[in-house]
Design brief:
Layout (H helix, E strand, L loop, with lengths): L13 H20 L8 H9 L12 E7 L5 H4 L4 H5 L7 H4 L23 E4 L4 E4 L3 H4 L5 E8 L5 H10 L9 H9 L9 E5 L25 E3 L17 H22 L2 H24 L6 H7 L9 H13 L4 E6 L8 H25 L6 E6 L3 E2 L16 E2 L3 E7 L6 E3 L1 E2 L6 E3 L2 E2 H11 L9 E3 L2 E3 L15
Parallel strand pairs: 1-7, 1-8, 4-12, 4-15, 5-6, 5-7
Antiparallel strand pairs: 2-3, 4-11, 8-11, 9-10, 13-14, 16-17
Helix pairs in contact: 9-10, 12-13
């Protein structure tokens, strides 16, 4: 895939010639393949299947909204009810439970690991009897719509590698993100909006987020996530400069496209086609983005559903509402990032703030999708990069505790298309420290998401620098028990 952009015709090697001829045809073939508008239509789907194109089989999910809770929410205070921790509060974590597992540098020097029971009550909800903490009353009301996975586990113990891992399938930077893989494989159903949009809650602090989490890696650059921001300019550098009219911009893009096409004909670099595609998309977005970002005509009952924060641009609630508007426009993958879950201190106080900001908007989004019939082909995912420890980081008091990183087990939940409702899958031990039933690795989660989109994760690969890569890299299995 590497092309030397500085070669002229006189310096073409055999490799350059083959690159030019084969990738040129391949680029045109790919462009054709990505015109998979509405793969749910039976005639188009059958045609795609007959030609060996994606999807590999009939998808159950058309769109995904991934509510990523950056910093790692404490499963032991929200979803994984462990009465024994309260009973043994202050006692040492048994060595037989700890088993010499890896610790972070923040607690490796502790001489004591006192078990920390949750300060918050848990109750069972709905016909499913799901245990949910009282910090999440709105989500609790939807217990029979949700599928909890309480046995997620990861290999990364620190935030940046863990976020990179769950988003790209590797702890090392440089791989394509989930949304980019889906955009590359399935294309877009709306030519006027990106297939992959990212929304980040404004004015939130915590572990830093890096654009590589929604980057395209080695895939063509038009498949990277496009960040939409609150404010006058939702997409950076999208608006025309002062004095440049829309007609003038269109004329400029026409000339620019011709120049790029000439350059592509000269050296055959497929990234040039990606660049042309991005220019054209940016021009179309000048009209489509302001329209989708305008929440002024949403009725009051919608704001009541999502919460008053939905009236404030850039909040998690407003972004949840915006996510609904984006998937209504057939954006395939919308990812929301909400920071602030990294509770190494003052957990009881800080987790209340996080839950107040996210509980009602999350439930409101699911309810809104359901009432519009969109939940039938949309999947909503809620979760972070790893879990939190059952022992207190630092001093444990009657009024305060903290929890360190814990990759050995954590909880996520999903709702919507292709997923069983009112199900809890996987189980941790009575201390909430180790998985004892149905472990789900990050690659298993990714393989399952791909499967729901109609993709066989083992067959969907991209050759880069002599190796065929995939999102799940070298392992991962579909969690069939949670599929409807």
């Amino acid at each position: 895939m590497n092309c030397n952009h500085d070669h002229d015709n006189s310096n073409y090697s055999r490799r350059d010639f083959l690159t030019k001829t084969t990738l040129g045809l391949g680029g045109l073939s790919l462009a054709s393949m990505l015109q998979t508008e509405n793969v749910f239509a039976s005639n188009r789907l059958q045609s795609a299947l007959n030609q060996g194109r994606l999807p590999h089989f009939v998808p159950k999910v058309k769109r995904v909204i991934y509510l990523f809770q950056s910093g790692a929410p404490s499963q032991l205070d929200l979803f994984d009810h462990k009465p024994l921790l309260n009973k043994m509060n202050g006692q040492e974590l048994p060595e037989s439970v700890f088993g010499g597992q890896r610790l972070t540098g923040m607690t490796a020097g502790q001489n004591s690991f006192p078990l920390a029971g949750s300060h918050f009550n848990f109750n069972q909800h709905g016909k499913s009897g799901a245990w949910i903490g009282d910090l999440m009353p709105h989500i609790s009301s939807l217990s029979d719509e949700l599928c909890f996975i309480k046995s997620m586990h990861t290999e990364a113990i620190n935030h940046d590698p863990a976020v990179t891992f769950i988003q790209t399938g590797s702890q090392l930077p440089g791989r394509p993100s989930i949304g980019s893989w889906l955009s590359y494989g399935l294309g877009s159903d709306n030519k006027n909006l990106p297939g992959f949009v990212v929304l980040i809650t404004k004015d939130k602090y915590g572990q830093p987020l890096y654009s590589r989490s929604w980057g395209n890696g080695f895939l063509p650059s038009q498949h990277q996530g496009v960040q939409f921001r609150a404010g006058k300019n939702p997409v950076l550098y999208l608006d025309n400069p002062p004095g440049v009219t829309k007609d003038l911009r269109a004329e400029q893009l026409d000339y620019l496209s011709k120049l790029q096409e000439d350059k592509y004909a000269d050296i055959g670099d497929p990234e040039i086609l990606s660049r042309i595609s991005q220019y054209e998309m940016a021009f179309r977005m000048q009209t489509s983005v302001p329209e989708v970002m305008d929440l002024s005509e949403e009725p009051d009952y919608i704001y009541d559903l999502y919460g008053e924060d939905a009236r404030k641009p850039g909040t998690f609630a407003a972004n949840c509402l915006l996510a609904r508007r984006l998937i209504e426009k057939d954006v395939r993958f919308v990812q929301l990032y909400h920071q602030g879950w990294d509770h190494h201190g003052d957990l009881p106080k800080n987790i209340k703030i996080q839950c107040k900001e996210t509980d009602q908007p999350t439930a409101g989004l699911i309810k809104d999708l359901k009432q519009r019939g969109l939940l039938e082909d949309t999947l909503v995912i809620w979760g972070g990069e790893f879990g939190r420890t059952n022992y207190s980081q630092g001093q444990l008091t009657q009024t305060n505790y903290a929890r360190d990183h814990h990759p050995a087990c954590f909880t996520i939940f999903m709702a919507g298309a292709g997923i069983k409702k009112g199900v809890t899958y996987g189980k941790t031990d009575e201390f909430g420290y180790n998985i004892v039933e149905n472990p789900v690795h990050v690659h298993d989660f990714q393989a399952t998401l791909m499967h729901l989109m109609g993709i066989d994760h083992e067959k969907f690969t991209f050759k880069f620098q002599g190796r065929r890569y995939r999102l799940t890299d070298v392992h991962g299995k579909v969690v069939n028990d949670i599929l409807s």
